[in-house]
Fold these 2 entries.
Entry 1:
Amino acid sequence: MAAKTEALAVKATAPRRHLRIHPAFLFLTPYLAAMLLFSLGPALYSLLISFATFKKGVPVFFAAGLDNYITVFKDPFLWPAFWNVIKFVAISVPFGIIFVVFLSLLLHARVSHASNAFRTLYFIPAAVSGPALVLVFLFTLNPDLSVFRSFLHMLGFVDIKEVVNNNYAPFVFTLMGFYVGAGSWVAIFYGALQGIPEEIIEAAIIDGCSPLQLAWLIKRPLIGRYIAYMALNVLAGNVQLFVEPQLMSTVTATISKTYSPNLLAYDYAFKRGNFGAGAVISVMMMIIGVTLAYVVIKSTNFYSIEA
Amino acid sequence: MQTTESKEKTPLQRLVFAIFGRHPRLNGMTGIGEVIRWAILLIFAVFFIMPLVFLLIGPTKPYTAWYDRSLSPLHIGSLSGYVTAWNNIAMFGEGLIGKWLVNSLWYSASSVLLSIAIAIPSGYVLATMRFRGRQVIMWLTLISMILPTSTLVLPLFLEMSAAHLVDTPWSVILPSAFYPFGVYLAYVYYSTSLPKDLLMAAKVDGCNDWQLFWYIGLPMGRVLIATLGFLTFNSAWNNYVLPFYMLNHKELYNLPLGIASLMNAQAGSPGFLRELPINEPEKALGGLIMIIPVALIFVFAQKYIVSGLAAGAVKE
C-alpha cells in the first residue's frame, strides 16, 4: 500500500519535474505533423504564392504585389463561376432536405422489414462516386440510351446536349448529389426518428394527435437539429463543387470549363500556367470554406469538444 | 373516438394522414394510404437502383444495341459481351487497366493503414487526456474535417511540386496521413465507450500512458478500426481529385483516373486513339470495376458505416 502511494506520488510529479511536454503529444505528434504538412502548411503556402510571380515554374515571392488579385477580380469568368455555385447551392440544399425528410418520415411511418429493405436500396448509390457517378449520369440523362428514356422523351428531350448544359447544370448536379448522398442522410434521419422515445409518441396519440400532426408537431421538431446539420454540411460541401463539372466539361463540352470557382482555379494553374492567380482563388475558397465550417460547428451542437 | 377524429378532416387530409400515419387505427383510409406510400417508396427505389441495373447489363450488349430504339433499355445481351468489353479495355494503352487496378489496390491499402495508424492514437488521447492546446487541436480537426478536398488540393499541389513529389505515388498516399474525420470518430468512440474507471484502475495498478493505450484502448477499438477501415478504403478507392492534380503518367493512374481517361477516349483524344474500341459497353464495365468492390462492402457493412457517419453527428 505504501509502495503504491509512493509510486503514484512519483508518477504524479515526475513528468512535471523532468519534461514540460504533456505525454499526450507523444501520441499526437504524427497527426500534428500531418496536419502541418498537408493542411495548414499548404494553406499558408498558397497564401504566399498568391503574392508571387513565376519564372520558369519557380516562384518569385512577393514579386507580384496585388497583381494576381487584380487579375482574378477583373476576370469576366469569376462572377459567373460564383453565380453557378450559388444557383447550385440554392437548389440542392432545399431539394435534398425536403426529399430526405419526406422519405425518412415515410419510411418511419410503419416500421417493417420492407422499410429496412428500402433503406438499404437507397443507400447503395453511396458506393458510386467521382468518374463512376458522372458515367452513370451521362448514361441516365442521355435520351438516346437512358434506362428512363421514355420519361426523358415525355419531357421533350431528344439529345443529351439538351439535358446536360450550363442552364440545367444546377439541376443535374443536384440530382447527382441527391443520388449519392440521400441514402446516408435517410439512414441518419431514420436513426434519429427511432431515437424518439415511444412514450412521447404514445402520449401524443392519447392526447388526440393525428398521424400527420405526429409527424409534423412531434417528429419534425425532434429531428430539427439534424435538418440544420444536414443543410450546413451539404452547403459546405457543395460550395466546393469541382469533380462533376470538371468531368462533364471534358466529356460533353456543353458544360463550361470554368463552371465553378475551384474549376477556375484549376484552369488558371494548369491551362494558363498562372499559379499565382489560381492560388488567389484557392485562398478565397479556403476563407469561404473555413467560415462555413465554423458556422456548422457553432450553430449546430453536434460537434462536441468536451467529452 | 377514431371516427370523430377522421370526420373533421377533408378526404385529402385523411389521405395524407393515411400515408404518413404510424398508427393506422386512427384513420379510415389505411388501404389507400399504404398503397400510395408503397408507390412513392418504389418510385424512389427505381430512381436509385435502375441506373445501376442498367450499368450492370450494359457490357452484355454491343454499343449498337445501346442505341437501338426497337430494343428495351433493359434488353440483356449475352455474358460473352463482358469478355469482349474486358478485352477491348485491356487493349487500351497495352494493358493499362491492369496497372490501374494494382495501383488502386496498393495506394488504397497504404492510405488505409497510414490514416488509421495515425487517427486512432490521436482520437484516444483527445478523449482521455486533458492538456494545454487540446481545444486548438479539436477546432482545427473539426474545421478541416468539414472542408472538402477540392478546397486544399491546389495548395497541396503547389507544395508537393516544391518538394518534387508531383507525379509520384507518394503525392497521393502521404496526404491521407491527415484524416481529421477519423480522428474525430476515434475521439467520439473513446469518449463514449471507454469507461473512465477502467483507465483509472489500470493507472493505479501501475500502467503508463502507452500501456493504457496498448492494452486497453486499442483492444477496445475493434469496432472503431473496422468502421474506419471501411470509410478510409472507400475514400481512397474512389479518390479522384488528388490524383487528378498530382499524377501525369498514365502508368501511375489509379482506377478513377483511368476510368476518366476511358470516358474521354473518344471525345478529346488525337485521331489514332479513336480507332480504339472504347465505347459504351467498355465504359460501363470500367465504371462497374470501380463501383462493385465498394458497393459490396457497403451492403454487408451498412450498419458499421452508418453508425460511423452518425457518430460524426450524434453525440448523446
Note: Chain B touches chain A through 123 residues (CB under 8 Å).
Entry 2:
Amino acid sequence: MAGIRIAAALLLLAGAAPAWAQDANAGKAVYERKCLLCHGEKGDGKGPSAELLLPKPRDFTRGLYKIRSTVNKTPTDQDLFRIITEGMPGTSMPAWAVLPEKDRHNLVAYIKSFAPEVFKEAPKKLELPKEVSSSEASIKRGKEMFDAIECHKCHGTEGRGDGPSRPELKDEWGHPVAPANLTKRWTFRGGRARTEIATRLANGVLGTPMPAFLEAVEKPEDIWHLTNYIVSLGPDSPQPATLVTVSAVRDAIPDDPGADFWKKITPSNILLEGQVIVDPRNFNPAIDLVSVRAAHNDKEIAFHLTWDDPAESKGDGKATFPDAIALQFAPQQPPGTERPYFLMGDATDGVYLLRWEQGKGVTEVSAHGPTKLAPIPGGEAAGKAVFKNGQYALVMKRPLAAAGAERPTFRPGVFTPVAFQAWDGGAGETGPKMSLTSWYYLRLEEPQSNRKFVIPPVVALLTFAVLGMIVRAARSRAIQ
Amino acid sequence: MSFLRSRFVQAVLVLVLAFVILRFGIRPPAPWSVLTLYMAIIFMAVLIFVSSDRDSWRDFISPIWSTLVRPERRVLRTVLVIVLPLLMGYYAYTQAAARPQAPPELRAVHPAPPASIQLKGKEFNISGAENPLRKDAARLKEHAAKGGEIYIRNCVYCHGDNLDGKGHFAPGFNPPPANFQDPGTIAMLQEAYLFWRIAKGGPGLPKESTPWNSVMPAWEDRLSEEQIWQVIIYLYEATGQQPRRWEAGEHGGH
C-alpha cells in the first residue's frame, strides 16, 4: 500500500494526470447504478428512498464519516472501502462485496470528490493501545470504566441503548439518533470485531453524540477493558430459531418472569421485521428480536418472552401508545399445511392472538386482519410483565385445552404454526404499525419421553443376536 | 500390493471411494437422503460385479467366511460381534434423541399462473401478454429510472439493493425473498408472469403453493398497472437479464 501511495505521489509531482481522476469517473458510473437511489445524484443523501430510511443515507457533501480509523476527521481510503465492502449492519447500507474490487476502489474516489476540501487534510491514523485479552479482571475493570465515563447515560445500565439521554440525541444533521444496543453486537455499524469496537471507543463516531474516549479513560489500555466488557454483554450473532420447543414439566409453572425456572430453558430467538403491507407501513421497526421460552404441564401452557424496548410506554394516545406483544395461532389446527394469512388472518380465515398490552395485561383476541380485532369473552389467559433496564420480561399462561371454536387446543408432539407481533408504543407503534414474523413452528414436547433410553439398547441387543446366529450357522456349516 | 487383488478389498475400496467423492466432492453438500440413495445403488452395482462369476464370488466371500469360522480369527470375530451392535445402538440413540426439526415446507417455486386475473375490476389476460412499455424504445430508460424509484421505496426491504433477495428484512422471512440475480428466477419467466406475482403477491398464489408462507404483498393495492410494468423493466435492466419470450401460439403456463 505504502509503495502505491508513494508511486501515486511521485506521479503527481511529475505533473502527470492524477491517477484517481480517472477512477472517480469510473466510480461515477457505478455510483449511478448502485448508490444513487439512496445517496442522491448530488451525493447529499437525498435519494428517492431517503425519507423512508432510518438512519438516513450518508450525505457525502459534508465529508463527515462515522466509521474511521483515524484521529482526525479524514477517513482513510481503506475505511471507506471497508464500509462499501461490508456495509453498515443495522442500517439499510448493504455489503457491496458483490461488486468487483476495482469498482469499489473507484467508488471511494468518486465519493471523496463530493467533499474534496475534507480530503485535503491527510488522514492521521489512530494508534490503538496494546491489546488486552479478555479476562474476568479485565471485564470488571471495563465495567468500572463504563460507569466512570458515564456510558450508561446513553447506552443504559445494562447496555441496551436505553439511557436517560436517549430522547435528546441528535446527529450533525439534526436527525434523532439511537445509541447502540451494546447487547446486540451484530448491529454495530462499524462491525463487531474487537479492534473495531476498540477503535469506536477510542476515536468516537463522527457526526453523532458518541465522543472519542481515548483521552477520557484513566489509562489507554482501559479502551481494551471497555471493549472486553462490551463483548461480554451479549452474543456475537442472534442465532435465529425456526422452531419453538415447549418443554414438558410436571410441576406448576411460575408466573414470575424472573423465576429461576425460566433461566433453565434455552431461549429461541425470533427475528421480527417491519409490517409494510397495509397502511401505516413500518419501514423502521423498533423491535427486531424476541427471545421465547415456553413450558407446559398437563393443564396449562406458558410463554416467557423477553425483548428490548428502550422505554416503558403506557401511551398518551397521540404520539405514543401502549407497548404490546402478541403470539398468533390458527384457531384450529389446519388440515395439511394450510393456515390463515400470516398478517393476522383475513375475512374468511381468522387467527387467535394471545396478546399482552401495557396497562391492559394478557387478553385473548380473535382477528380477521390487522385492524379487525375482537376480544374473546371469558378470559382464560393470565400473565405478568416486568420492565427493567430497557428489557421486558413477560409470562403469558393459558389452559392447554380450549373452550370454544375461536381458541386453539395445544397438543404435544404436533407442529403448531405460530407467528409473533410486537409494538414499541414509545416509538409510535400501534395497530398495523408493528414488527412481525411470518409463520414459525411451535412444538410441545411429549411428557417424559423415555424412547431415547429404550430404543438404543433394544437395537444393540437385536444386532448382537443376529450376528451371533450368523456366526453359529456359519460354524456349524463349516464343521459339516 | 497383492491384497488389492482380493475382490473383497476391491469392493470395500470402491464403496469408500464413492462415499468420499459423494460426501466431499459435491458443493454445496448433497443432503443425506440423496447420499443414501446413491450409496445404495453403488452397493447393488458392486454386489452384481463381485457375483458376476463363481470365482469372483468365492474370492469376495472368502475373507467374510474365514472371519466367521476360522479359529485364528477368533479375536477379530469377537470384536466385531461386540462393536457392531454398539455402533447400531449408538446410531439408534442419535436418531431417538435428536431434537425435532421444523418440518420442511415443499412448495412450487414458480407455480403456473392463471390465464387471466381480475385487476381493479377489469379482466387482465396473463397468457401471451407483453410489457406494453417496451413498444416505445425511446422511453425505456425513463421507465427504468421510474421503476428504480418504485423499487427502492417498496421492494428493497426484502429483495435488497443488489436485487439478490438479501434486503434487511430478508433474514426474518421464510421462504426467502426472490433473488433476481439468480438465472433461475426472472430470466426464465415471462414479464407477464412477474406482473401476476407482483400484482397478486402471496395472497394470490394458487393452491399448489400452500402453505402460503410468502409475505409478498399484493401490489395491485399500492401500484398502478403502469408502475408495475416500470418496476419490471427496472428488474431486467438492473440485473442485465432478459425476459423469457412467449413461444408462438403459446397460451397458459408452462
Note: Chain A has four domains: 17-117, 136-231, 243-444, 455-480.
